[in-house]
Amino acid sequence: MNIGNTIKRSSSPWFTILLGAASLLIVAAVVSSPESALQASLQAMKLWWNIVFPALLPFLVLVEIINAYGWSHGVGVLLEPIMRRIFKLPGKGGSVLITGMLAGFPAGAQVSSEMVKQGDLTPTEAGRLAAMSHFCNPMTILIVIGTGLLHQPATGYFLLAIHWISGILAAWTYSLRRPNAKPEQPGSENLSRSRTTKEQNKKESLLLQAIKATTEARTRDGRSFGKLLGESVTRSVQTLMMTGGYIIIFAVIVTLLSQHLLSGVPSFLAAGLLEFHLGALAISEGAFPSSTIQLAILSGMLAWSGISAHLQSLSGLKSSISTKWSMFALKRLVHTVYACCLTLIFWKPVNDITTSVLPAFGAVPQETLRNEQHFNLWSGFHTLIQWQIVTCIVLIGIFTMISRIIDRR
């Protein structure tokens, strides 16, 4: 990982001393409480292997293959109006947005980085798309949180809808800071190609333009299927190993902080700030004035997603893509505000419509979370693939319809 991508380097020696001292304190805390650190590591490892790995691996591999075969470029043509006019980004970024919504972090950042490598995006656009496509994995929200912690699958679907809608609203809000911005061209070659084909595209239907863009992108890539599959699997597994390392180390840090330094602070604050899986567990076990407030805090915590998730996404970007963590965190805060407000507004009406879908907070969620039989996506791997494919088609269709409406105005 290139630390320069995640946190801006400081030339002050005090910054280096501070990081070194923090590392020593963590090591000392692990030595003083080895059993707690081991249990936190095992719980995080189980979560990563049973949920995160099977949910992300197929989609990461398939997305890279789809990009190589040019399908993302075709989708980009279909989503060009909505991406250009609403988010001030090129249409090709639409495939990154859909990838982030379906696969969760750090898939969006990884795809953005690959598109920069292929010359389809500039580093600035890739950084913005990495923040825009930063969503929690849907399977985590539906299965771990909706079914396991809340014991109400319908509530998981409500949280997922709020999570997606608030994320899109946050991206639109941030794009208002660039009212006159136009999508940048990655290079002179792409610029000339865009100018020469613009007049031809006006005479063609949107579908024909998408097919043409797909064919051209596949010709430019040129890799055989065997080579493409091998490289896709290798890069995806490396990304997931990095993700697992983040989840495990932050689980240990949260546990040690709660025991030694933050014993008087509500457990969900430290856990939610650093790692959203542990934050969701702490919120579900906490005492709140009402279930609406509790659900709003949970929705906001999912939007924030934790510093661990931030670093995972930012580390997925290449060294040439400079993105400050402070700006990335600011966008996550906007997402958090929208998620909390939308949950407070819509939970009661939705709850009434869905016949008393109440979150069962405090109903022994920790034992349920640790039960492998309830949380093992490997057993339903084919169902997971089907869900991702169907949802991907539905999202592409919805965004394409919106793009057509916008393009006609």
Provide the succession of SSEs. HHHHHHHHHHHHHHHHHHHH
Q: What average pLDDT do the residues reach?
A: 76
Taken from the alpha-carbon principal axes, the silhouette is: globular
Low-confidence stretches: 1-11, 187-196, 356-374
What fraction strand? under 5%
Task: List the total number of helices.
Answer: 20
Instruction: Find the structural class using helix and strand composition.
Output: mainly alpha
Please report the distance between the alpha carbons of the first and last residues.
Answer: 45 Å
Multimeric status of the protein: single chain
What does the radius of gyration come to? 22 Å
User: What about the largest sheet?
Assistant: none
Number of discrete domains: 1
Can you count the beta strands?
0
What proportion of the residues is helical, as a percent range?
A: over 70%
